[in-house]
Amino acid sequence: MITQIRQIITGHDENGKSILVSDHVMEPVQVAAIYGSEFYMVWGTEGPEARVGMSAEGPTTTPFFPRLGGTRFVLLRYAPDSSVPENIGDPDEVAAEVAEKLDGMFEPFEAGNPKMHTTDSIDYAFCVEGEMWMELDDGQEVHLTPGTCLVQRGTRHAWHNRSDKPSLMLYVLVGASRS
């Protein structure tokens, strides 16, 4: 059974009383560039600091990777690598779709090694379902199974689903400065 992603958001009414703002099952964002995968852009904040209370702003999920002090809460269901076709379509159309639906997502990715990327963020990752492999420099890899927590600290990496089933990863990204 594939888990449905349900988003519940709280807030305040005009008197400052806590209320339920919304409760719904989220629809995924899909792009041909990452064939068969589903992005759930749950919430995001801008930096340099998040605000709560009566004057709190709504969410932001663009650009895809947060700027300094910003955050993103994302669930990503990866299709098995073996299910991805060799040709996913016209490169210009594929890039335009990503720019429209997941603005800025491909900016940190390497041209000569399209899965490898480096972001200016601290990423808290949690494997919810399935299996994933995170590749680091020199081919070093770590295998993630359900319940695995990973702290990714701005290192060069790539994600692979080498299993025959979809996997679901939860990410909280915090925009950071590089030293």
From TrEMBL:
Residues 108-172 form the Cupin type-2 domain. CDD domains: cupin_BLL6423-like (cd02231). Pfam families: Cupin_2 (PF07883). This is Cupin. The lineage of its organism: Bacteria, Bacillati, Actinomycetota, Actinomycetes, Pseudonocardiales.
